Amino acid sequence: MALVVQKYGGSSVANAERIKRVAERIVDTRKAGDDVVVVVSAMGDTTDELLDLANQVSPLPPGRELDMLLTAGERISMALLAMAIHNLGYEARSYTGSQAGVLTTSTHGRARIIDVTPGRLRGALDEGAIAIVAGFQGVSQDTKDITTLGRGGSDTTAVALAAALGADVCEIYTDVDGVFTADPRIVPDARQITRITYEEMLELAACGAKVLMLRCVEYARRFGMPIHVRSSYSTNPGTIVAGSMEDLPVEQALITGVAHDRSEAKITIVGVPDEPGAAARIFETAAGAEINIDMIVQNVSTEGTGRTDISFTLPKTDGPTAMAALSRIQERIEFKGLLYDDHVGKLSLIGAGMRSHPGVAASFFQALAEAGVNIEMISTSEIRVSVVCRDTDLDVAVRAVHAAFDLGGAEEAVVYAGTGR
Amino acid sequence: MALVVQKYGGSSVANAERIKRVAERIVDTRKAGDDVVVVVSAMGDTTDELLDLANQVSPLPPGRELDMLLTAGERISMALLAMAIHNLGYEARSYTGSQAGVLTTSTHGRARIIDVTPGRLRGALDEGAIAIVAGFQGVSQDTKDITTLGRGGSDTTAVALAAALGADVCEIYTDVDGVFTADPRIVPDARQITRITYEEMLELAACGAKVLMLRCVEYARRFGMPIHVRSSYSTNPGTIVAGSMEDLPVEQALITGVAHDRSEAKITIVGVPDEPGAAARIFETAAGAEINIDMIVQNVSTEGTGRTDISFTLPKTDGPTAMAALSRIQERIEFKGLLYDDHVGKLSLIGAGMRSHPGVAASFFQALAEAGVNIEMISTSEIRVSVVCRDTDLDVAVRAVHAAFDLGGAEEAVVYAGTGR
């Protein structure tokens, strides 16, 4: 008898009908003899509706109260899911993040899990019940106030509970069949990946693959918890995220997949004095404004001027804050101007096999050149090559690279409607 | 500096606009120098919407999960109210029933408050914050599960918190100006009562006056906590519920008011053997089925038959259960039949002065006779006379009695739209 943690996202429980379908899936697992802990997100648009209410009463609601408000969402979905399971003749009990022992920092809106003390969940399992836990939420260890974990928080809740309970696997149910070699909406013959290491999955998630959030994969790697990504709507075997690159056999696939990202913008700081400390002051400013910087390129200083241009990419959502923060230091740094470009796209090629095959980057750039894609920025890691190009070139670039490395499968991938949280 | 507990019902916080109005009222009290604890119900129709969702997933949802679901309602309203107060520049913190220390029995759906340990509320007040507490909910002392208090639960929460905190007054904000000598929708010149004792208010509440629930008044009397009933929509001084009949001056008003109730039905058990124990077995059956019986009348045995009829009133909502339970014992008790009549109305005249004025009942029946109202059942207490009549006669009867005892005021009462929870 195994212990399985299952996580269902907001679109999987968007209405009463879907909640009943999910209940059947959970009961099927229980019937097979496994103990089950389920982590559930808020139903469909509930979070957006609650945010809308908050904006109607206050332009800048305090984080503590916003967390109190938003956590009502999972409270509703988890209670309904427990009722639906009861109705199938199985005992189910719902628990808030606080009741499930999810202890966090006190940073409202993006708290981090410090510890998990799942005593009540163990008690429920011991009595033969299915435990339903609210995702995305916890309680501050210091202040005892209710907190939320931020984007992708439900996935993190699931992995953290699985680790704390010593579960055999953490199943993340979503609206796609698993992890693919590229986005099937762009590359019709994208192939589903059967198994992928934590490191590769981390690079994919960091480079725009939306199927799993970075934090959740980091957590799983830290505790060695296997993640099984599966579809809520099919019986496809899905993708297993487990194991380290170090343990991979030599005959592994060279390349895992292609990720792309349209959510970033590029800021160029023009005419920065080419002297020690200028770049440091610029990126200190960005860090102080809590801007997440991704890629950075500094041009060679234009001869004779003593000045250079620095470009970096960042999430579009951080764009206005970053531009304002940089404007404030223009006089002090004495740079000439700021350019903001949100029509860029990022493409990344990821593969653990890349480490021992120096020819990969060459083939990658060759494929892009043949497709007529102009490269604006480049960055690399041990198992990844990323480029920034025009966003209008991105689809062509993804297809070209995917084909060049022969990643396609025989069949077309199935794409489901809807999005997860 | 006083400590004031204020309770706002669902219609007072039905939308963002009303929440902002309530926030202003609360801040006004704080500005006047008082410490404020606010108890709030779920917004408008939230509870009904959640119940509807529950019915979509399960015909008979388990009580534990239903309570978990419904308590999401106050979580939303209290967080929004705290945000709205923040927006006016005052510190406000929301607390669930559990966080506020409302410890209850574990009977889901109608738990009773066992104890209140408001340590976190005291802490918030000590730091100058306004504490917002979810009404209608608590946490089971034994199982640590979330519970709800049943109908009128938010009023009870408010009085219980006021008592535990040693508040100076518990203000119940509602959609009427206060307690009236009769329902102003039936009696246009009904007069608002300035001050009323706990005993009289208990009788009014038990006899159908909807402004305060019986349990809340019982709680207030037990702890000697004054209740101030006020309108959320006006600055009318409202009604104070405080003090005992025993302390009333001799020159007090004879009669307090007229209450009516359309929510009861009458069951008649026909042809009950007129022998010891028959009635006992009937009412044991009713008690076993958790039926709340109100008035009982047993006719004189019809001469020669050795049989009698027994009639009693009960809430219409208990009607089907009671009829089924009684049918099951028909053979054993050997009664002849059951009649169910849900077209009855109850009218009650209440007044502490009644104790020392034996003529009140005579004038009461005289007024009903002159109005052509046929009386079907009668019951009395020390400070109350109640009758059951046809529901179609009820309005006429209320107006006749109200006029006979000269209860009317000079001005017409103001009636507001909407209903509270």
UniProtKB/TrEMBL annotation, chains A, B:
CDD domains: AAK_AKii-LysC-BS (cd04261), ACT_AKii-LysC-BS-like_1 (cd04913), ACT_AKii-LysC-BS-like_2 (cd04936). It is an enzyme of class 2 (transferase). Residues 267-343, 349-421 form the ACT domain. SUPFAM superfamilies: ACT-like, Carbamate kinase-like. It catalyses: L-aspartate + ATP = 4-phospho-L-aspartate + ADP. Its EC number is 2.7.2.4. Pathway: Amino-acid biosynthesis; L-methionine biosynthesis via de novo pathway; L-homoserine from L-aspartate: step 1/3; Amino-acid biosynthesis; L-threonine biosynthesis; L-threonine from L-aspartate: step 1/5; Amino-acid biosynthesis; L-lysine biosynthesis via DAP pathway; (S)-tetrahydrodipicolinate from L-aspartate: step 1/4. GO terms for molecular function: aspartate kinase activity. Keywords: Amino-acid biosynthesis, ATP-binding, Diaminopimelate biosynthesis, Kinase, Lysine biosynthesis, Nucleotide-binding, Transferase. InterPro entries: AceGlu_kinase-like_sf, ACT-like_dom_sf, ACT_Aspartokinase, ACT_dom, AKii-LysC-BS, Asp/Glu/Uridylate_kinase, Asp_kin_monofn, Asp_kinase. It holds the Pfam family ACT_9. Catalyzes the phosphorylation of the beta-carboxyl group of aspartic acid with ATP to yield 4-phospho-L-aspartate, which is involved in the branched biosynthetic pathway leading to the biosynthesis of amino acids lysine, threonine, isoleucine and methionine. PANTHER family: ASPARTATE KINASE (PTHR21499), ASPARTOKINASE (PTHR21499:SF3). NCBIfam families: asp_kin_monofn, asp_kinases, PRK06635.1-1, PRK06635.1-2, PRK06635.1-4. Belongs to the aspartokinase family. This is Aspartokinase. It comes from Plantactinospora siamensis.
